[in-house]
Amino acid sequence: MIGSTRVCRRALLSALALALLPAAQLRAEECCDPAGPFRPGEAYAEEPATCETIGHWIERAPEVDRRITLTVSGALSAVESDGVLAYLIMCPEPGVQVMCVAYSANDMRPGDVVMFGGGYSRVGEKQVMLDPCLASRE
Fold first, then answer.
1. Cα separation of 28 and 22, whole Å?
2. Which pTM value belongs to this model?
3. Rounded to whole angstroms, how far apart are CA atoms 31 and 41?
4. Which homologous superfamily is 38-137 in?
C-alpha cells in the first residue's frame, strides 16, 4: 500500500510538472528570443547586442508588462556625472545610442569597451535607456 502511494504521488507530481511546463515556456517565449539580448527580470543574455546590431534588436523588443533586461556590449562614446548618478553612453551617433544610468562611472572613459546590463526602456527613435544598469569592462 505504501509503495502504491509513492507511485501515485510521483505520477501526480510528474503530471503537474508537465502541465506547468507549457505555461512557463510560453511566458519565456513571449518575452524573449533565446538568441537575442533581452531577458525577463534581471537576467543577462548570453549574446549581447552590439552597436552594430542594437537597431535590429530594439525593433524586436518584447512588449511585456514587466521588467526586461537588455545586455549590450561596445565602446563608450561619453561618460557624464551629475555628482549623484553616472550616465554612460555607448555607440556613436547617428546610430542608436544606449545610456546606462549607474551609481558610479568606476573610472570608465570614452573608448573603453564595456558591457551594460539593465532595465530596458526605449526613450526615442534612436535612444535606449537602461535604468538601473550595471556596467563592466570587458
1. 10
2. 0.76
3. 10
4. Nucleic acid-binding proteins (2.40.50.140)
